Amino acid sequence: MVELTIADGIAWLTLNRPAKLNALDRASVRQLAEPLRALSDRRDARVVVTRGAGRAFCAGSDLADLAPLSPAEARAVEEEHAATCALYDALPQPTIAVLHGYVLGGGLGLALYHDFRVAAATATLGLPEVELGWTPPWAVGRLVDAVGGATARWLVLACARVSGTEAQTLGLVHEAVPEPILAERVETLARRIAALPPAGLRETKALLVSMSPLRSPRWDRAAAEAFERCYGTTEAQANVAAFLARR
Predict the structure, then answer these.
(1) How many CB atoms lie within 10 A of CB 184?
(2) Which residue segment(s) compose the domain that 170 sits in?
(3) Coil/strand/helix, residue 191
(4) Are 132 and 243 in contact (CB under 8 A)?
(5) Domain-embedded: residue 199
(6) Range list of H helices, 171-216
């Protein structure tokens, strides 16, 4: 469900559940953690790129995976998702998320753990959790870090969905390009970064991470606690059941 290839200094991580729009379940998140831990020591990987197979980068957490769980169990799963995504910060290499199609909920959360986000202009980005009856269970601090509090409130509380082009205007992504040239643009950026001195990249990235208190794990824990309080409500459980029925 997660594929890793390394070529010319670039590590390509591909989420490979296209039939599920690369939704994150427990198995795929654990598979993602394995290469992220291994890449820290790979001298042949100078930059790490994450992309999604098929029609979407990632449509969010897989509700079919969460549906049978108690609120406490679902919280534990989401905390594991956050801990895996936080491995991107621990990587010495800069990281790039390649966003196309749906980039929703946990998919947008995953993207926010990357150093750079490049999107197709036609991508759809959003955080629909409040609409479903719960809070985004992680990455909220990173959202505020990226776009500021006012824009974060609009995206989360209004459940706004934006295109890649609009996301660039908001600062949610660094660049939005026509989808036919997305892969080319990302490879050009990745090659440029891979050619830079690794010591400078490593030390500067670590410094920037340490300077960003909103990227602290404490905010992921706080978001998971809020998620647990909401997830067990009658309204939230009804929305999960309705979503699964539509599936």
Answers:
(1) 10
(2) 2-194
(3) helix
(4) yes
(5) no
(6) 182-194, 198-210
Reply yes or no on whether the pLDDT at 247 is more than 80: no
Tell me what pLDDT residue 167 has.
98
Look at residue 72 in the predicted model and tell me its pLDDT: 96
pLDDT, tens digit, for every residue of 134-159? Answer: 999 999 999 999 999 999 999 999 99
The structural domain count of the chain equals 1
The CA distances from residue 59 to 106, 129, 176, 198, in Å, are 7, 12, 19, 33
With 0-12 CB in 10 A as exposed, 13-18 as middle and 19+ as buried, what is 131?
Answer: exposed
The CATH number assigned to the domain holding 76 equals 3.90.226.10
| Burial of 140 (C-beta count, 10 Å sphere; 0-12/13-18/19+) | buried
Quote the CA–CA distance of 73 and 68 in Å, as a whole number: 9
Q: pLDDT tier at 243 (50, 70, 90 boundaries)?
A: confident
Instruction: Assess if residue 203 is contained within a domain.
Output: no
- Span 75-80, mean pLDDT? 96
- Closest by Cα among 84, 81, 47, 56 to 189: 47
- Cα 114 to chain center, whole Å? 7
Among the ranges given (42-56, 139-153, 231-245), the one the predictor scored with the smallest mean pLDDT: 231-245
